[in-house]
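Hi R.,

Here's the chain you asked about this morning:
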Amino acid sequence: MFLKHDKIEPARVTNLLKAAEAAARQVPPAFPLDATVAVNPFLGQSHEDLAHAAARLGRVAGARLTLPRSEYARLIETGEITDADLAAALFDSPSPLKPVDLMGLKAQLRLPGKEPEALPTVADLAARATGTDWPGVIRRSVGLWAAGHFDRGQALWTPAPGQGTFAAWRAWATNDLTPEIAGLSGFCAHVAEAPDTAERAILRASETLALTEAAAETAFHRLYADLGGWAQHARWLLWTAELDGRSDQALTDLLAVRMIWEEALFRHVPGLADDWAKVVASHEAPVEPDTDEVTDAILQEARERGFQRRMAAELAIPTGRTDRPSMQVACCIDVRSGPLRRALEELDPAIDTIGFAGFFGLPVSHRAHGTDLSDPHLPALLSPALHASSHLDAAPEQAARIRARTVRAWGRFRQAAVSSFAFVEAAGPVYVTKLVRDALGLGGEPAEASPAPRFDADLSAEDKAGLAAKVLTAMSLTKGHAPLVVLLGHGASTTNNPHESAYHCGACGGQAGDVSARLLAGLLNDHETRAGLPAHGIDIPGDTVFVAGLHDTTTDAVTLYPDDAGPEHVEKISQAKQVLRQAGRAVATGRAERLPGARADTVVKRALDWAEVRPEWGLAGCAAFVAAPRAHLARNQQDGRTFLHSYDWTSDKGFATLELILTAPAVVASWISLQYYGSAVAPEVFGGGNKLIHNVTSGIGVVEGNGGVLRAGLPKQALHDGEKPVHDPLRLSVLIEAPEEAIQTVLDQHDEVRALFDNGWMHLFALKSGRLHARYRPGKGWTSPD
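And the predicted structure, written out as tokens:
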């Protein structure tokens, strides 16, 4: 007998719905494949430290958040972790459960530690009682429906279009006989008589399951974890809605769907009450780490201190430039830009390189040639304030749209249920040559460059100068301009790769960086902009020209776009192309040594090979973020492990640029670092699975095989070369050359950013003249970096 919603105590209603909201906030968003953005999988746990997060995610997802202890023991044996690292990590741990001394810590290291196991759901208990894999039935049933409901244009048919998530699922589930065939008789009727809103369904199921208010939050989080990437996609829908000042119900609706399944199984399978009551009691317990989780967190801290110790020893102070550089190349802070910057500076010491976020400070959305769809080209933490397009005049624009529609229509014809058979019979043999060429990596001519983008609104002369001055100040590029300044965005060429956008620019919302670079180059070459810059204290020499480019991180080829450069600049642009070509070849040669089965002369072909699961390593290996003048950085920091951001605090009035760096690029870099961390230490929960069995679903993400849970995160081939891991799971070390007082002021003004450092999700250091000067210790202020 079910209690009606109106008979539940109002306070209980409020507390249960608050618990559902809190559980939803524990879920990280997963961006769709066409604009993949690296997301911190521990975003919902940023208010607690690693040990507490391990306790929480162990309870709800069975996730382990650190390496096996045998790996830490190996690192101690090889000297990568020293006794000093262990002692410092032990001393800084605030937990009362930590070992009493270094000997005790090493004794714990010799023990295997516990393997986390998620608390069972009702479906898990029912599976044990009946022998039917109810969790698998649920994942497959919900996944099949969700693939159609959330589809972003891949499917030819979508069930119940236009309906809300909960209503659409009820319409589906009342006609889906899969649960009944599996043995859950009466499920369709159970769904039909369920409450008409997600909130009422959650409340009714909570009453049926005798779910207490104290247990509700982690019990709900457990069900979200069971939904995997579908819950994370719904969290992304909520994320994007809130950026626009709206809300979205899909995540709550999914919880209601999962609760109805729990309720139905609880009613259907006898004898679950006692075991379920024990589970509820476990959920009621406060989320607190035990000795094992505290010990593992200390060992991870020691591992990161070992890296920081070696990094500090490698810091050097090269001689700064006093003469005018022949060329300046502004690259994205992405770790893949570091080797190219190093190669350029080694080829020609007269070249200076600059690091800045790849969207080049332009918060823009862009409509590409031939479409009215607008894609954001900026970090996920920001909203577009500017709009641009690459549209041409009416006739060529219309022709491009017709071509695109023809391609889409032809693709639909090839895939449709009936016409696909006729297509294979009639046109299949024609595709044999193309199939062979693609299989051998011989297919396709390089795509033509898009028309130059331009801002949609006509900016006034003052607006142009103000925007340009803001960007140049943030780039620490207000003086000393070279005759040629290359603004180099980055992207990646891959074939048959669902995760292609993940290899593009994270600062550009998973898009390539050429659009932002070309917009900024056009702005900085504009005569009205140049005329207005002196009023902002910036005077660019008359012979300086800005040229945009794109670094292909898979082939290491660089393309320049001299969209508005006059004939007087042809020679220096030609010379730049030559040196960029040489630098790209040098980088490709070095990169080939790390890629399994690669040679310098085959790196480009890997980008065209539709069977290549490792076209490049992406950001694997990322470990540090440095914001400092280029003259204060050692070249060995350009090793592909460090996000390098140019910053000169002495010219940062009011420390506005410092605030921007700490709240945007440093946070984005931490998201990338923690995505790699989560995918490496907890691949079953936060990893993308095996590329070899991926199928693209709904235009959103991938599943393994032919259905089930959506897999978010990084595929295992992005982290492992087949024999050994290629990524060290380290939380990001952030090094800022600025006074500690200024850094602290920024932290005190941004609680969410400070929480990342206070809870150990990032480490923070202050530099002085290129050397480590102070370490930020949560609750203890700034101390010696040792």
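The chain has a mean pLDDT of 91.

Let me know if you need anything else.
M.
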